[in-house]
Specification:
Length: 391
């Protein structure tokens, strides 16, 4: 076998997800699906203190080849870094991605890529101008279970998909769990359920009703109706429900058919209150010939069922339900699959991933912009604008 393509990562931010992602990178040799890619962490930066960086590096036992920084600006200038993983709050993604691109680095940025579609368009233009790779870290798209489900939809196993219902809800004691300052509910950090969790519901809807189609047939939703409940203390949304209509593009006898979708997210009620999926699937993909259901959480499902339609098959002895399991190893989260995709794209000279094209990232953000407009969720102008303040 040829030697693997080595990807040198710089980690920006030392918070919760930075730790999870980096742990997965280190596990990638053991669990990765793609042995042609090898990941190395060559730099870590905290914006707040060198102590935080050292703690991160020691805790994860990163090798001595990793350089510690107490400034993002210096980390992105490190010639030993090929790609920067941006793991800061949503509010800061625009500035931090721009900083990395300006320094000539490829970027994988946590979800959502930006606060709004306009910022995302600006970043994509910048990446194109500089011929640099850019992707939102929507890791769910790269799980093997997701590709399998998508393939089944494309092959028409459940017929034409006419309805998709997805719930990504936590069921927390909101005030106690998140308070007012945590990024989940803090509007200064672009907090709220929609941008944090609802994006997964929308991701599945886009996968089924947009991405599953050939590129030339993909169309943004023709109708969007949203309701939000805003938190009484911070004004960020603690619940959002969005109804969407997509034109159907697959050939059928009635061209006026439309597909409908429901994207749900809620911080006070849970998709899975008992943690055993007794409440039913988080994702229902309903087609004219049957249905695919996935148990939650929607961001990392590990089981799906295909339920075939049995028309008038009374007493017929056919197996109508097929269950398929995709367990993620317990020591990992499952983020190395998205990291492998970054490696493949860079190796092959691509600046965007076909599994998550820029156009689609922007289309999802446009839906969230519209839902926020209808729901009255306003963020401070300082985090909505696309003016980059050089560091
Ligand atoms: N893919 C997934 O499953 C998940 C994705 N996420 C995404 O990751 C991003 C970060 O979330 P998470 O890791 O939970 O957040 P944390 O608050 O745990 O970490 C964010 C880090 O960003 C850095 N930072 C830079 N500027 C600021 C600022 N003004 N305020 C606060 N922190 C700042 C800090 O690191 P330092 O001080 O070292 O610079 C901080 O530790 C979000 O966009 C979120 O949506 C989050 C959880 C799961
Ligand atoms: O992106 C996310 O997915 C997993 C959740 O636990 C987390 O809160 C959210 O940010």
């Amino acid at each position: 076998m040829d030697s693997p393509f080595i990807l040198r990562w710089g980690i920006m931010g030392t918070g919760n997800i930075a730790k999870t992602f980096t742990k997965d990178l280190l596990l990638s040799q053991k669990w990765q699906s793609d042995r042609t890619i090898s990941h190395v962490v060559t730099a870590v930066a905290s914006s707040s203190s060198m102590e935080k960086t050292r703690h991160f590096v020691n805790e994860l036992r990163l090798s001595s080849a990793c350089t510690n920084y107490d400034s993002y600006k210096f980390m992105v200038a490190d010639p030993k870094v090929d790609v920067v993983y941006v793991a800061t709050p949503h509010s800061h993604h625009f500035q931090h991605v721009m900083l990395a691109l300006e320094s000539g680095k490829h970027v994988l940025c946590e979800k959502p890529l930006t606060v709004n579609a306009y910022q995302a368009r600006t970043l994509c233009e910048e990446a194109r101008k500089r011929n640099l790779f850019l992707m939102e870290a929507m890791w769910t798209r790269f799980l093997p279970i997701t590709s399998d489900v998508l393939e089944k939809i494309r092959r028409g196993q459940i017929g034409e998909v006419l309805r998709v219902v997805v719930d990504t809800s936590f069921g927390d004691d909101v005030e106690k769990t998140w308070g007012t300052q945590h990024r989940m509910l803090n509007r200064d950090l672009a907090g709220g359920a929609l941008l944090d969790l609802g994006i997964y519901s929308l991701t599945w809807i886009f996968l089924c009703l947009y991405h599953a189609l050939p590129e030339s047939l993909r169309q943004a939703p023709s109708g969007i109706a949203a309701q939000m409940t805003l938190n009484h203390l911070t004004g960020a949304d603690e619940a959002s429900s969005i109804l969407l209509t997509f034109p159907t593009s697959a050939p059928n006898d009635v061209p006026e058919w439309k597909s409908q979708a429901v994207a749900l997210t809620n911080l006070r009620v849970s998709t899975d209150p008992d943690g055993k999926n007794s409440a039913g699937p988080a994702i229902r993909i309903q087609g004219t010939k049957g249905e695919i259901q996935l148990d939650g959480p929607s961001f990392r499902p590990e089981r799906y069922r295909v339920i075939s339609r049995c028309d008038g098959a009374e007493g017929q002895d056919i197996e109508s339900v097929k269950v398929v399991d995709y367990p993620v190893p317990s020591e990992a989260k499952g983020m190395y699959w998205e990291a492998d995709e970054v490696g493949r794209c860079l190796r092959d000279g691509k600046i965007q991933s076909q599994s998550l094209p820029w156009e689609e990232i922007i289309a999802v953000l446009e839906v969230m912009d519209e839902a926020r407009r209808q729901g009255g969720l306003i963020y401070p102008e300082a985090i909505e604008n696309a003016s980059y303040s050089s560091y």
